[in-house]
Amino acid sequence: GKGIVHSERTDPHRRKIGSNLHGMQAWVALPKELEEIDPEFRHHRGPDLMEYSGQGLFARLIAGEAYGAKTKVRTHSPLYYVHWELGGGVKAAPPKGYSENAAYVVRGLVEVGGRRFGPGNMIVFEKNAEPVVQALTPSTVMLEPSLR
User: Fold this and answer.
1) How far apart are CA 119 and CA 108, in angstroms?
2) Residues 6 or more apart from 56 whose CB is under 8 A from it?
3) Of 6, 13, 114, 124, which sits 20 to 30 A from 30 (CA to CA)?
4) pTM (2 decimals)?
5) What is the 3-state secondary structure (H, E, C) of 39-103?
């Protein structure tokens, strides 16, 4: 929206003693006709975000719709944002229903189509592909539709 101001806040005690912080931040572009709407902030946690855990996979749907679930996070276009924690050897696939998908490897080592990808790699899948991601080591992967 128009006039968005963003700042990170760290507790003064943490600043004094020092600490490590790890996180992912994603921004979603608004459709052109909504670029000048009033800015807003909404905090979501717990039941607003759908989670799955089983067979070495933890998945959290942060925004949008995927795997038959939908979050309470308001979006203005069809999308999903998924956080995966995969145990070594675990296989998983991006959500169906989106023609373009991408995965960002935060931690670990994954294999897709015989190619290996480590931390800091963005994997942009071929349009309409149905890839399988296999964690070769315990891995953290973020998934989203890609716009090329």
Assistant:
1) 6
2) 86, 87, 88, 89, 90
3) 124
4) 0.85
5) CCCCCCCHHHCEEEEECCEEEEEEEEEECCEECCCCCCCCCEEEEEEECCCCEECCCCCCCCCEE
Q: How far apart are CA 2 and CA 118, in angstroms?
A: 36
DSSP assignment of 99-135 equals S--EEEEEES-EEETTEEE-TT-EEEPPTT----EEE
CA distance 91 to 134: 4
Structure tokens at 117: 């990808």
Place of tokens 């700042």: 7
- The Cα–Cα gap between 140 and 105 comes to 6
Task: Answer for the pair 131, 72: CB distance below 8 angstroms, yes or no.
Answer: no
Euclidean distance between CA atoms 63 and 46, whole angstroms: 13
Question: Rounded to an integer, what distance in angstroms lies between the CA atom of residue 72 and that of residue 61?
Answer: 10
Q: What is the pLDDT of residue 31?
A: 87
**By three-state DSSP, how is residue 140 classified?**
strand
Give 52 or 14, the one with higher predicted confidence: 52
